[in-house]
Design goal:
This protein has 154 residues and is mainly alpha-helical. 83% of the residues lie in helices and 0% in strands. It is built from 4 helices and no strands. It is elongated.
Amino acid sequence: MWEKEVLMKRFSLFLSYAFCIAGLIVMLFFAVAMPVLRIERIATVPNVQTHTVAAYLLSYLVIVLVILADVCLFLLLRNIRREAIFTHSSVTLLRVISWASILAGFLAFPLFFLFIREALFISFVALFLGVVLRVVKQVIEKATELKEENDATI
């Protein structure tokens, strides 16, 4: 039974790495292909050029934040693989991921008003994910403090 659990942990970690790398590839693709992709907008809006520039700028800022979060996730997975979960490094990585998600959510929200309809959904998902990760970060941070206190006692 123990071997099955170890295999499942390894498989889960492998899938996490695979999705992390796939996410990075997708974000890099969007960063390169964004000028080619058509951003939907209503032609009757005044200053369409200004809105288009703003939409591209916000989109690129969101992509940069997602890539930052993805790289931090990759580093967090490395900590998990090394069984260094309750460390200040893991807490810092969770902090960066959560704030990047929250900031990406706030930056994606105006894209809805710049006629990218999916941005509203993306914004709320990113904000929710960021808040959940803030809670997880608090739990890991407290567990790290307890672990250090326990290590110092022994």
